[in-house]
Amino acid sequence: MENLLGVLFEAPEKIRLMRLFLRNPSMTFSEDEVARLTKLSKKKIDAELGKFLKLNFITKRTATVVVSNIEKKGKARKIKLQQKKLPVYGANQAFEFFKELRELILRQVPEARHKLIGKLRKVGKVKLAIASGAFINNEGSRVDLFIVGDNVSRRKIESMLAHWEANAGRPLTYTLMTPEEFRYRLDMFDRFTRDVLESPHDKLINALNIS
Known about the structure:
Blueprint: H1 2-8, H2 12-23, E1 28-29, H3 31-38, H4 42-55, E2 58-71, E3 78-91, H5 98-106, H6 113-120, E4 125-131, E5 145-150, H7 154-168, E6 174-177, H8 179-187, H9 191-198, E7 202-206
């Protein structure tokens, strides 16, 4: 048991990989997909997947995968899709400590609260920012991040989310509204907006004094 824990938790990169498999137990991923989703190098991934396989934490099989290749450059650039047989990896749900590890790993959120607030203040004049979903470990939420503000940059939000997704183990969703749209939706008892406010959440920024 001690050796098992040492192999599983010896590095932060390992936690990122584990979260990908544990959050998506019914899915399989090629090495390219693992690299894209975790933002880790293929060299690091190769080493860690090998250790996971020895522990029987993940499974490996060959599957037909559609891959894209860019041919030529400039205006003549074309994207060609090809079917290839590649090894894919997935969580082994029969692993002895699968349930316990899943509960432990998914309890960790992709970003600390104070860091979230600091970065959100840099995307524009944010009046309300609500963290839900992966940020509070509530998979039943309709959105992960709900933002109300003026002159808020979608590009900056999406850039932040792309960084956090590597730690979250899945794509993160967000909703952006102006204060006027938010007030209108509140007054109209918009179901989506009400669901966000009535479901478990954390108000990171609340200049609108929403209770």
